Amino acid sequence: MRPFSRLCAGLTAMLVIGQPLSAQNIESVGVPLEEQLSTGPLLPESVLRSSALTFPSILESFEREAAARSDQLAADGAFDLILEGEAYDRVTGTFSGGYAEVGARQPIAAMGAEVFGSYRLSDGTFPIYENIFNTNQAGEFKIGGLLSLLRDRRIDERRFNVRDTQLARDQARLDVLLVQLKVQHEALSAYWRWVALGQEIAVYEELLEIAEARAIGLARQVREGATPRIALTENEQNVIRRRTLLTEAQRNFQTAATSLSFYLRDNNGNLIVPTRAQLPASEILDRLPDMQALLTAQRSDLLANRPELQNFRIALERAQNKVALRENDLQPQLELKAELSRDFGAIGDGGPTFDSTDTVVGVTFSVPLQRRTAQGRLRRAEAELREIEMRERRIADQISVELDNILTTLNASLRLANLAENEVEQANAMVTAERKRFRLGAGDFFLVNLREESAATAQIRKIRANLNGKMAEASYNAATMDLKALGLE
Question: Per UniProt, which keywords does this protein have (predicted)?
Fold first, then answer.
């Protein structure tokens, strides 16, 4: 077999071996629920766990992060080792020359450099205009390198893309956290609204039961002539009004249960509508946070760690890198290239002039004279950078104001909850006293009903005050990124 044929066979094998066996698949890792939600009391921890693991928006954000990691992998491919090969042979004609070459190029980030090496081998005779293909009988080895001295020295499109995709990946991770905070906050709000409306049903049920039980006694008293019929009519009016209030409360509770099912899902993502039997003990809504304990964190730390502001810091770096890339486009292209080659073996058909060690150094230079394209792109990049800086300041101020409002709301909610508790105690005391006066004949039926409904209204206000406290606490936990409280730790 001719040396040229042997090299062609080896070259083909190297090209086949150099190909990747399979593409790397980057897939998101889903974490399934380890156990189904129980049918017992539904606690906030169960709701947060369900929403964190199954809510579609959170799963979507994980897929966006996986896509960003894929973009980073693709950008890193700009610095992959490149294997190249070329071969040809004359089948007929005056000349018999055949030629084959295999080489590799490795881009390097520093100074936009590239190193390369190759081996080539020829056999037979070539026309004078192809004399460069001649080698000694053992072939020629060549190594070399390329450096960028002006444009592309500090940054180029490849290095920009690598860094930009890294930053985009970091932003995707922050986006996951932002989505998780938003979803968990909404899930907690839906849960506490469901609990509060469930407790309101109990208040109206008790109020209706009192009126219905009183109707039996009043009917007997009317038949005996001890009480005028107007009292029975008035009580029937109270029954209708209280039944209406109960029906509205039941409707609101069912709506809240359906809304909560949006965040409460099984392993397959199917919605689970909680029932009234799953309501927790009423004391759960009474456990309000300690205001002083919530204020232990430093204000500057809370703002610095907010993912929105971290996202802006990354966006600023991306914009600054883009400005640097466009400034690079304005510079002239000046490249330095050096090669070292050596033929081995007996002198081939090209003669003794190829039997030497050759060192070649050269430069290339180019520059657009007007550079309007580069200038326009640079101005746009600078404008985008200034826009991000202004938006960052606005969002930082907005977050600071929102945090102040949350603290104000939370503090007021805690005070109102304490006042509502006192109001309930006083209203219950008034109901007890008025019922006693009525039994002794010194009271008025109208006042008894009024006291009962006032006590029920006070209980509703207490429930809603506690609900506002829980909602404010959930907002505070989301604003301060309390991952443990949000079921994300």
Answer: Cell outer membrane, Coiled coil, Membrane, Transmembrane, Transmembrane beta strand, Transport
